[in-house]
Amino acid sequence: MLRALDRERFRVIPIGITRDGVFVLEDDDPDKFALDAAHLPEVGDNGTRVLWPEGGADRVLRVRQPDGSIDTLGSLDVVLPILHGVHGEDGTVQGFLDTLGIPYAGGGVLDSALCMDKHFMKIVLQASGVTVAPWVTISREAWASDPDAARRAARTLGVPNFVKPSRAGSSVGVSKVHDWEEFDAAVELALAEDDKALVETAIVGRELEVAVLETPGAAPARASLPGEIVLTTREFYDFEGKYLGETGRRSCAPLRSRMTRSPLCRQQPSAPLTRWAGGDSRAWISSSPRGHLRQRAQHHAGVHADLDVPEVLDRVGDDLRRTDQRPA
After folding, report:
1. Which DSSP string do the residues of 213-253 spell out, in sequence order?
2. Taking the mean position of all CA atoms in its chain, how far away is CA 188?
3. Which residues of the chain have pLDDT under 50?
4. First CA to last CA across the chain, in angstroms?
5. Are 100 and 52 in contact (CB under 8 A)?
6. What is the pLDDT of residue 165?
7. Radius of gyration from C-alpha coordinates of the chain
8. Where are the alpha helices (DSSP H) in 146-182?
9. Cα–Cα distance, 100 to 59 (Å, whole number)
10. Which 3 state secondary structure label does DSSP give 86?
11. 17/26 Cα distance (integer angstroms)
12. Is the bond preceding residue 272 a cis peptide, omega within 30 degrees?
């Protein structure tokens, strides 16, 4: 996103969050955050402290420099959350921005929280009439108190299956279980990332991803052509395949997704579907926009053939500013 934003139309103020939860002013340098297998980017504490607006009609962003001086950065129009995982995609930052009255791209508090938690997302999708992959949820407490019961429940799904944290992104903590000897280690890995682990039936089929772009007012949301995730070197779409290597992707025929009319989606989430060999589809995740995955950014931009990444970002920014209801 840093590289794609039109600097003649937008002044960009990059803000990072350290592992300790400190908001710092970051460098406006896309190369600093490029994904490299030898060096994954990380936000460090550079001594600056971002001072958010105080709410009400105030939209002025300030920063305290390491020497204690305070600089005014200007009045905020729009925030683009490009955070991954817990405390980024789960509604926490979204609620913070709602409290301050600052418009932002992506899902709101409820839809972000639901899309982040795979267990509850599946329940909501089922209630909306969308078919999902069969699953069993194992809590950390259940695994500690009665692991045999959890194993029996999981065996109803058969193998191969996938074990994953309920709330984690980027395929972190995900394992493919080929036989039951691998199951316990897979559950332990998933529960190291979250207090719930999902066991899902492995689906053999085509994996399709659809981008959705909200439009202002009563106009219908715009859905992209599906992109197909074609794995060339990996068994499943894991962290390395998503971020550090090429897996292959091609456009498919137009597909209208029922999820475009769901309250789960607001401004370009991804909605992967898997089409089973039998011909029917299963939805298994809906997620928020993120900032530095080149392949996904390009696909999310392709809502229509006439839009590229910078044009989609222009449209998101313009729509948010146009519909913004500033406090009186």
Report:
1. E--STTSPPEEPPPEEE--SS-SS--HIIIIIS---EEE-S
2. 24
3. 250-251, 253, 257, 259-261, 267-270, 274-279, 284, 291-305, 325-328
4. 32
5. yes
6. 96
7. 21
8. 147-155
9. 8
10. coil
11. 9
12. no
CB neighbours of 144 closer than 8 A, spacing ≥ 6?
none
Q: What angle do CA 226, 2, 254 make, to 5 degrees?
A: 10
Cis status, amide bond into 160, omega within 30 of 0: yes
The 10 Å CB-count burial string (b at 16+, else e) for 41-58 is: eebeeeebbbbbbeeeee
Per residue in 102-132, pLDDT (tens digit) is 988 888 899 889 989 999 999 999 998 988 9
Q: Map residue 284 onto helix, strand or coil.
A: coil
> What does the alpha-carbon distance between residue 307 and residue 302 come to, in Å, rounded to a whole number?
6
Task: Indicate the residue type of 8.
Answer: E
Give how far Cα 110 sits from Cα of 94, 107, 221, 266, 325, Å. 9, 8, 19, 11, 20
The per-residue pLDDT for range 270-311, each reduced to its tens digit, is 455 544 444 455 554 555 555 434 444 444 444 444 556 666
Token code pair at residue 54: 């105080």
Rounded to two decimals, the pTM is 0.78
Using the structure block, give the residue that is written with the tokens 């779409």.
237
Helices (H) and strands (E) in the chain, counts: 9, 15
